[in-house]
Amino acid sequence: ARYYYNWTVRAHDGLSYSPWAAPRRFNIQSLVSISLTSNKVNFGTMLPDEINDTIDDKPLPFVLENDGNAFVNVTINATNLWFSQPNPSSYFRYKIDNVGAEAGSFNYSASMISWRNVPPLSSPEIAIVHLNWSSLTDSAEIDLYVQVPGVQEGAGMKQSLVTFTASLDETQ
Length: 172
Fold this sequence. Notes:
mainly beta; 0% helix
């Protein structure tokens, strides 16, 4: 989005005012830009029905940062992690959390702070609402939860491409 300000000035010497100067306009362009400062989650080797999550930082969660100059909303979706349990399923979940000392970086009550099934590629959902851009409060943590489906899943490496998409939050 593009925002602008119109302004003009005039002088005052304590006795009288000068005429107004010609009005000027300056434009401000919103920059929507996010990055993952922690961009890979590796759960290692797991057995059927085993559960693990990133809450204990073993493994580390995703950490997303707003690199732009405006508040953003961030959606999430992902490719299927499991063959036998396609997204969305309770076997692959996520939730949003604060990053260390950066509490207040996003609208906590409007964001997905409780475990939710990871949505499929066809149905991204808003996960982070009103993520700040100022450097002291511009990050959010995305915790993941996985449960290996029973033996029907089969052995082998499993992976999912998780996509985060930012859009300008114009609710200010």
